[in-house]
Design brief:
single chain, alpha/beta, 2 domains, two-stranded parallel ribbon
Length: 244
């Protein structure tokens, strides 16, 4: 549900300036919109500190593209739609200007992750840092749909994310309290198979490059899935289940 239009006569609807990224790109957002969504920003902007007096928040570590996702959600309560550029009907919609299967690569051309995964996972970490609870829920739901191939608006080249995406989330949020961490582990457990694994997947078990918390969660889920399959084959019910 979109936010109500701001009332310019209300002091809480005055604009707040966000200075984002190393290039200090400025964004203006209504104070009430920010404060209603984030207790952290609410406290900062209603204080006697510099942020409150100047109505300015500096986010040098936040990428501009990630902040645009957050800003879009703040005003619309929806994540932006990600479609390929050039679709005639889509030009009238607010969309991100790159294709859904675009990849982020390193200097040698190796694939790191999907751009969609990159933006969404970083927006999730941002939402964790600034306690934007509903944004975290919406991003988790979007990833669940992506892994279940259940949305036209979300890229679907694989049924679980690249290791780069997994590492980012597990290293920046408390995994035992994060729904997205559990979603990643379950998707990997359901869809990974050693005969079809890529070199980056193999690193999970051979090179120990993944966070131990993810490895543990994925293995627990694999054990649970195997147990349920064995129960189904034997026709048994009520057996002890593996839990988190």
């Amino acid at each position: 549900m979109a936010q109500d239009p701001p009332d310019a006569s209300d002091d809480d609807q005055r604009l707040v300036t966000f200075i984002v990224g190393p290039d200090h790109k400025e964004f203006s957002i209504h104070k009430s919109v920010v404060c209603a969504r984030s207790p952290v920003f609410d406290k900062a902007l209603n204080s006697e500190f510099k942020e409150g007096k100047e109505r300015t928040i500096v986010l040098e570590e936040t990428e501009v593209g990630v902040f645009k996702v957050v800003m879009h959600w703040l005003y619309t309560s929806q994540l932006p739609r990600f479609r390929k550029t050039g679709f005639g009907a889509e030009k009238k919609e607010q969309v991100v200007k790159w294709g859904p299967s675009d990849l982020k690569t390193d200097e040698e051309g190796n694939t790191l992750e999907l751009k969609w995964d990159y933006l969404m996972s970083n927006a999730y970490v941002f939402a964790h840092l600034y306690d934007i609870c509903d944004l975290r829920k919406d991003i988790n739901s979007a990833f669940e749909k992506r892994f279940e191939y259940d949305s036209e608006d979300i890229p679907q080249p694989s049924s679980y994310p690249y290791n780069t995406t997994i590492i980012r989330v597990f290293e920046n949020v408390p995994y035992d309290q994060s729904s997205l961490c559990k979603t990643f582990a379950l998707a990997f457990a359901k869809n990974w198979h050693p005969s079809a694994g890529t070199d980056t997947d193999t690193a999970l078990f051979e090179n120990l490059q993944m966070p131990p918390s993810f490895t543990h969660m994925a293995l627990v889920q694999m054990a649970r899935i195997r147990q349920e399959m064995e129960q189904a084959r034997s026709g048994k019910s009520g057996a002890r289940r593996v839990r988190w």
